[in-house]
Amino acid sequence: MARKASRVVDVRRAAEARTDVLSTAAGTLAGMEVTLRNMVRATVGREHVTIQYPEQRKPYSRRFRGVHVLTHRADGSLKCTACYLCETVCPAQCITIEAKDVDDPRVEKAPSRYEIDLARCIFCGFCVEACPEEALIMSREYDLTAITRGPETLTYGIDRLTERPEIAAYGAGFRPHMQYPLVESYLPGEGPEKAAAEE
Amino acid sequence: MAQYLTRNALDPAQRELQTALRAGAYLGFKQALSLPPQEVVAEIDASGLRGRGGAGFPTGRKWSFIHAKEGQTVYLLCNADESEPGTFKDHYLIERDPHLVLEGVAIGAYAIGAHRAYIYMRGEYASLAETLAAALREAMAADIIGPNCMNSGYDLRITIQLGAGAYICGEETGLIQSLEGRRAYPRVRPPFPAVHGFLQEPTVVNNVETLACAARIMAEGAEAFKDHGTGRSAGTKLISVSGAVERPGVYEVELGYPLMEFLQGEAGGIRGGRGLKAIIPGGTSVPVLTAEEAAPLTIDYESMQSAGTMLGSGGMIVFGDDTSMPQALLRIAEFYAHESCGECTPCREGTGWMAWVLRRLLAGEGRPGDLGLLLRVGDNIEGRTICGLGDASVQPVRSFIRKFRPEFEALLPEPVQAVAWQSHGHGPRTGRFGPPAEEATRSEAVDGPPTAAL
Amino acid sequence: MPIVTIDGRQIEVEQGVSVIQAADRLGVEIPRFCYHPDLRPEGNCRMCLVEVDGFPKPVVACATPVVDGMVVKTPHTSPVASRAARGVLEFLLVNHPLDCPICDQAGECSLQDFYMHPDYGQHRSHVDPEEKIHKRKRVNLGPRIVLDAERCVMCSRCVRFSEEVSGYAELQFVRRGNHVELTAFEDRVLEDPYAGNLADVCPVGALTSRDFRFKRRVWHLSHTDSVCAGCSTGCNVRIDHFDGHIERVVPRRNPEVNRSWICDEGRLSYQSLTSIPRLTHPREGDRRLLWAEAIALAHETLHSAGAVTGLPLAALASASATNESLWLFRQYVEVAFPQHLLEFRLGREMETVAEREDKLLRRADKHPNTMGALHLGYGRGLGLKGLLDLAEKGELSRLLMLYYPPLVGQEAEETKERIAGLLARVPESVVLTTHELPYLTGAKLLLPVAAWSEEEGTYTNHQGVTQHVGKAISLREAVRPATDILGDLWQVATAARRETAPERLFREIAMSVPAFRGLSYAGLESRAATVYPPEGRMHYGQEGFAGR
């Protein structure tokens, strides 16, 4: 939609015209321009502006910062090496990590516990930007509700951060190098096996 | 050709004590024993003898640095490690005239007041050690060396020690460490070995040839020594010439002898009648000379210094005009990377880095800026290491690249219109910490401004 | 004495002091890897190169003694020195694996710190990971130390530590050039009882502590200066804790006491605080009490029986208590019980207080404050053995005991039996202690007190040096410091309030006890040594994470 060019308003003349009933009405109507246009569209043209959420959903930006996802390697192990950079950078201090030794000589270290308290999370995406390995990215999942607070509802552990139906349903969201494909990182259900099967 | 040090060397019987004595062996030692030690030092000082191992430090002065305090034991160590590439003069000397070497060791020990001397020989010289040991046994049986040497009341014990064969064991303090039974890690100076050397006692380390010269000087006088050579470079020098010459080998040359005359005369000219491309005059640790630079030079310390190089150990390596200088440099650089002891950082990492860059250059995987990188790495090694190996490794790299740059540039890939990689942006990543994929853009990173922030 | 100018500032130092030591005294930072104040200088890392007027080349600050009139320029002011330091740091990083995300040293790593410094770091060379020389990772060097040879900068601090300090000499370099690798002889595990220090002296992540491995990122830790309570040496330590848990204990440098070292037993002594269950509430038999009830009951227990029989009260306080607790304990006993037997000896503490267990730090007396107890007038009575004999004769009916189990090792079986025997024979007993211990179950009333790291105070070590012990961990459940409990008992006994803040108590001690005369609490704290890492290195950009 093209923007209207700005006009110069003569304040004195506008003040003189204030008592003018017609121009007052015209001003009111002008102010309601968008509303009226949509009203006409909806009633006459049957073009609906609102959607029937949650049955209907609008597509969200690919960069949307929704609920986090922990990615995994080709062999299915967690990409995260428990470097604590996300925990360090988190302004809401909602990430809790505990690390453990693993037998894999390439990584040595992996999280034994990785929790994000989504009730505290402000979805700023700093954690994702801090991650040097694209082990933590965001999804486009936005409708996060629960009727109680606490670890069993809004604190997501490794299990829910790696696998949950919503990840596939909403798709991947924000990560720092959006313009390039993920390097050796896979979302749940994805992996070299799946890519090979598709080919 | 001079015949001063190697006068008796052609006689195979010279190894035997009787023959050697007939030829005048141990006369110098006898002469020395008749003088107080200070006068021996003064005599050597007067002869102008300079160290033949590479650095060319005046021997008399080195000896005069020893001031043993009460209760201290002084040691003389003879450096027969001879590990500089292209150098094999000490081998010749020990093999042909072992008694001359022993006499030199005895004189040196007497002059500095040592009653214990060690001859540290490289491990590869095992058979040579046997020759020297046989000579030592003979000399000891004849009471020339041992308790009460030649009835003078002076006691001396000489021990021959074989090293385990590492370049760094030829470095003064590395040799001391190795002799003490430790890993041959050179020591930080100060304190110098003259103060805290072998077993933390005052110590002098001398090259084989230096001590042999000292033996001759004591026998025949400083003046006879100065009859040879030039003013500041007195005496003769053993030159071990190798490479593209018709007659490689060890030659005794009067200092001040024209280099080209020696090359074309004694050494028999360049092999196959080819042209001369370059000469390394004193072992691989000194800068290389082009044929033009070498033409007017004479074989002595000052002349070499005027051309920006050094006489070094006298290990002369000659390159014919069919030599690939980058390949020759790679061999040298790999030698230093392999022989760096790994103690101090610049040499440990720098020599390996230079060899690695040269290897990729010669494998056809060179990157723009690699030559600059080599020179910069060299600059970062030089003058920042504990011992001289670091500096030594830089000399060939720098001189080869400066003097034969076109040959190196030919190895580089065609210049690409490089898009400078911005480290702050995000390029496509190839690996875990990968830079941008394009090969050509790496030069910026490698050649980046290390000094820009200064 | 020579006067040296470093970066335009002058300092006078003793003969033989090196340039780096003079700079440290001035507070001028010279970057270093191999130099350590308590090890022989080796000069191999070449990071401390400085420009000295009149010298053709930069020289190493760590091995160059100061000469009068020397003018030194560090990388902060000299382009020559700065170029040298930058070059050396670049070399060190050529083959460094850069696995900081999984490296425990990250956050207190010299390589990281120096790289971030504008005068030594931030060069832009790039070496691909595939082109680096790879060495062994995660090498098991025993129960204390894990080796990552790739991260090593070959500074040889560890080699020198094991040769010069602990004397075990179990580490050495093998191979040459850039393939040099640190190794233990034949890959045997380290037997050194001081091996934990290797992780501290390592300026990078090559040697890391197995105990602390992956527990916590160092920038999340809070630090409290304290003194080890493992034996009578009193090594200065720093307690690193997070969220109310001690994550590790590292030594602080104190040249008079422990230099930069601590034994492994002391380093891990914090584990014994939690390895056996703690006493969490006042308890009479199996019945939990509120503190008000417990204090009233304790008072009743200690007074009723004594009044009837006229026998003395046995008061026994462990030499692991702080000077402040011991002082208040003694005052309380003297004020509330005219007839008493005051004692601290559980075993042979008085004889073993200065007895060495090895030639470095460990001592036979496993109490941190035996000297303090002696200074405060304890140890003139009968000892535990004597009290037990009295009890057997039926001449003891009341016992007040302040008992801490040793942090290093186990209490001697003999002592356990004697304590159990005493508690079995004395009908009215009140025991203040930290843990649920089987040999204390005979007590009528058990009161939970704060353990080491949970209360503030002072210890006096075997040399007679009084040192401040910090409070790192907040108290859990109903646990209270011994001084508070004694203050309450005092109040019940005398109907007067008693000041129990450790600082006030120490002031009282300093005024009344000759051995402490002239000392002040603030003075003790400031006398604590340089913080870890021992050479007083600065941490760049760390403020951002503080107070987490």
So what's the overall shape of chain A?
A: elongated
* Shape call of chain C: elongated
Give the strand order, joined by hyphens, for the main sheet of chain C.
15-14-20-19-18-16-17
Task: Briefly note the CATH topology name of the largest domain in chain A.
Answer: Alpha-Beta Plaits
Determine the CATH topology of the largest domain in chain C: Rossmann fold
Helix percentage of chain C: 25-40%
How large is the count of helical segments of chain A?
Answer: 8
CATH architecture of the largest domain in chain C: 3-Layer(aba) Sandwich
Sequence of secondary-structure elements of chain A: HHHEHEEHEEHHH
Total helix count of chain C?
16
Class based on secondary structure composition and strand pairing of chain C: alpha+beta
As a percent range, the share of strand residues of chain C is: 15-25%
Helix residue percentage of chain A: 25-40%
Largest interface: B-C, 43 and 49 residues
Kindly describe this structure.
The complex is a heterotrimer of chains A (199), B (454) and C (548). Chain A is of the alpha+beta class and 199 residues long. Chain A has two domains: 13-43; 68-198, Alpha-Beta Plaits (2-Layer Sandwich), CATH 3.30.70. Chain A has helices spanning 11-16, 21-31, 33-43, 85-89, 126-130, 158-162, 165-170, 192-198; strands at residues 68-70, 95-101, 109-117, 136-138, 155-156. The model of chain A has no long low-confidence stretch (mean pLDDT 85). With 454 residues, chain B is α/β, with parallel strands linked by helices. Chain B has helices at residues 17-22, 27-33, 37-47, 59-64, 89-96, 98-112, 126-141, 172-179, 208-220, 222-226, 259-264, 291-294, 301-306, 325-339, 345-362, 370-381, 388-403, 405-409, 442-446; strands spanning 75-80, 116-121, 157-162, 203-207, 236-243, 249-254, 257-258, 276-280, 289-290, 298-299, 315-320. In chain B, the strands form three sheets. Chain B has a five-stranded mixed beta sheet. In chain B, strands 3-2-1-4 form a four-stranded parallel beta sheet, with helices on both faces. In chain B, α5 (89-96) packs across α6 (98-112), α15 runs antiparallel to α16 and α15 (345-362) packs parallel to α17 (388-403). Chain B is globular. The N and C termini of chain B lie far apart (54 Å). Chain C has 548 residues and is of the alpha+beta class. In chain C, β21 and β22 form a beta hairpin. The model of chain C is unreliable at 528-548 (pLDDT under 50). Chains B and C meet through α14, α15 and α19 of B and α2 of C.
